């Protein structure tokens, strides 16, 4: 990477013959700044890639629906607001009729809020999580449940941010 930048730094340091030409200096500076910005964007895109899930290979598509429940009977313990109540977000994934043309659901429904909260809890700067807003799944939001055998094994997962 240094080999790409050094020739352009040399352009800036080349001695000016005669009078100082502001236009040449501005062009050289803009060229170096643009190349540096391109290198930074390349490094960030490699370090924080927008990943993709593998395409499902089974006979069913994937449907998903997200619920936001508020328990009005229980006050929230982790806030200073006395009017706040316990809230729970739940996302359900289920077998659905496959659809190739439908818009895919996001990996995280409200990615900006979730990733900033995750960053506060985990410690690193929020921009390290910001690429999650661009990640989509293979699921389609709100599609009907496929005609599936009820005896099919079901999996559930309940995770928290801390143990």
TrEMBL record:
The chain crosses the membrane at residues 29-51. Keywords: Membrane, Transmembrane, Transmembrane helix. The keyword Membrane applies. InterPro entries: AB_hydrolase_fold. It comes from the Bacteria. This is Uncharacterized protein. It comes from Actinoplanes derwentensis. The lineage of its organism: Bacteria, Bacillati, Actinomycetota, Actinomycetes, Micromonosporales.
